Amino acid sequence: MVSELVSAVCSKRLALVLVGLVAASVPVIAVSKSVVAASNVDVFGNGSTLSSPWWIASGTTVSQRYGCSDVPSPTIEPDSPPAWCVAPFNKSWHQGIDIPMNTGTPIISQVQGTIAASSSGVLGIRTNGGTIVYLLHGYPVGNFGTVGQTVRVGDEVLTSACVAPPGGSCTAPHLHFEIHASVVGELSVPTGPGDDVNPEGWLFRIPQPYGQQLTSWSAGDLGEFVQNGYPLSGVIYSSYGYSTGAWSGPWVFQDAPSGSGFYEYLSTDPVVISQSPNEWDAFALLTGGDLGWWSYANGPCNWQLISRPPGVTLNKDGRLTAVTRSDGHLDVFAEGSNKVIYHEAGIRTGSQGCAYTWYPWESLVMGLPPTPPQFQSEIVAVSSDDNNIYLVARDTVNSVWWTHLDNGSWNNWISIGGPVGSSSGDGLAAVAWRTWDPATGQFTRELDIFARSLDPRGAVPKSDLFNGRYTCATDVTCPSGWSGWLTDVSTQGRFVPSGQLVAVSWAPYRIDLFVRDQNYDSSDGWLWHNAYSANSLGSPGWTGYAGQTFYPPPNYMQAGHMGVVALGYGNIDIVAQFTLDRSIYRYAHLCYCNNTWIALPSGP
Q1: Which member of 13, 316, 462, 536 has the lowest number of beta carbons within 10 Å of its beta carbon?
Q2: First-last CA distance in the chain
């Protein structure tokens, strides 16, 4: 175990160390204790089990929690605890969270930005959104010890070791994970906490969509968003650690503000994504063929109308997806009435908030044949790392296509055909990641695609699931990187898959696939789960489908929607729609941690 006293010493010394390293040109802004207090309430206490994609392991135990601490302040510690800290956690203030690590554990960045500070045992990453992430106790990997070096999601940036920062000490290997809102070091030495923020939400940052209507922006915080013929309705869910908590009620109606010029109703349920803790964005197609955008960035923003591409109406039947390729970037994809896919990009223009510059729509027709495919099935967008997007789509003859945005440029579309034996059908999902491959000594990207096949010919239609994998060294074209369609996720006749499937990945080489049974009756309308692991998280390969613990609430029939959020090992949440009479529809939440369904409040 890590000495809590040493942890406190190291974390408090961080501010003093970094001020000398890189803070000379950073303005100092006073922050009141009352403001800090409102945002510094910890979720994970000492002894809590914690897992994160920042490290590849099945979980570890928090040795020193964030915020109010029961460890006495050493003489060199500049911070006394705020008055609102309650005994026994009123002896000092811990600016980060400490997690024991075996020596040599790779620390993998889940943010993108640049190295802002590097010293013995200290690595600071300034994210593209301006936030500073500090990692203490370890050796930087390669060039990541150089200030100014670009950092991308999936980069192995630190190797855990018992390395003391300047002026500090260490008695056992651990990771001290600390977040500052905008500047380096403390702001109000020695009277109280600085601009440090609760780091726990940042432990789960993965830049990819977490489901269509379900999103998460921090550990234990979920939001389910639907429409009822009018602008967005939403319910916010709060839980703590690995508990299921309770859903808030009633549903919150997010109408358009008066005089905003937002005159159209939503024609689809929204697609909701999260960029960073306490910030999420909702997009929906509108009845007039335009796009609607509603954002929450530490407070609600007004609805904004994003006009359709010139001369084209956006299809209003749900072919919409969105992704964040990095903090401060929003990318939306929709199908036009001409069966072409269009891309709209927004970039934050100031500090974290609602101000974005939206660029003109671009039609994605790169490298298509003279008679291009007509895309009229699902569109899926995923991001493997900073400024990188994979877009996967299906056309009218059931062929699957994909293209790749890398460092601002789109590659040509590539057709990979349709799943074996498929003449029609829907059901499409994808995940992607970027990670260091020690076998090749370089970074590798991987895109995994999942598709349902449906052959309606014959007395009994045939339906099954297929997968394929594209791997490539980063920034290198790999025309032979496609595996072809595989049968790793075939149902083997155990159940008939519907077109509703969701794949999530919360760490490299880990995939969780959820599929709804085509039979919606209460006896066998199960939600099936299959998992893949290729490293220390479990035995390599797919586990095979299990439905015994993933089933709808007793006597309920499943209906249209399913969303899945995966924040870490054993921390997966599912929201599914259900009905008793096929007339009134409600929503229920299942936590992977205890397999207990909880009905959401009655809503729209």
Answers
A1: 536
A2: 50
Q: Are 540 and 184 in contact (CB under 8 A)?
A: no
CB contact at 8 A, 34 and 83: no
Instruction: Report, in angstroms and rounded to the nearest whole number, the Rg of the chain calculated over CA atoms.
Output: 24
Please give the model's pTM, rounded to 2 decimal places. 0.76
Tokens encoding 153: 């999601």
Whole-number average pLDDT of the chain: 75
Distance CA 386, CA 432 (A): 12
> What is the CATH code for 4-202?
2.70.70.10
At residue 449, the pLDDT reads 95
Instruction: State the average pLDDT over residues 167-177.
Output: 83
* Cα–Cα distance, 156 to 144 (Å, whole number): 9
- Residues sharing a CB contact under 8 Å with residue 166, sequence separation 6 or more, in sequence order: 13, 17, 119, 120, 121, 122
| pLDDT score, position 77 | 46
| Element at 69 (helix H, strand E) | strand 67-69
Read off the DSSP letter of residue 309.
P
Average pLDDT over residues 549-561: 59
Q: Which of 306, 276, 307, 279 is nearest to 295 (CA)?
A: 279
Domain ranges of the chain: 4-202, 207-373
Q: What is the mean pLDDT of residues 337-363?
A: 87
Distance CA 309, CA 503 (A): 30
Q: Spell out the CATH class of 207-373.
A: mainly beta
Burial track 454-480 (b if 16+ CB lie within 10 A, e otherwise):
bbeeeeeeebbbbbbebebebeeeeee
550 Cβ contact list (under 8 Å, min separation 6): 514, 526, 527, 528, 529, 574, 590, 595
Report CA dihedral (470, 367, 407, 379) to the nearest 10 degrees. -60
What six digits make up the tokens of 44? 């994970």
Q: What is the mean pLDDT of residues 210-224?
A: 71
Residues facing 97 on adjacent strands: 177
pLDDT, tens only, 567-599: 765 678 888 777 666 566 778 888 776 777 788
Most confident stretch, 288-297, 368-377, 535-544: 288-297
Three-state SS letters, 375-415: EEEEEEEECCCCCEEEEEEEECCCCEEEEEEECCEECCCEE
b/e sequence 92-125, b meaning 16+ C-beta within 10 Å: bbbbbbbbbbeeebbbbbbbbbebbbbbebbbbb
Query: Is a pLDDT exceeding 80 seen at residue 79?
Result: no
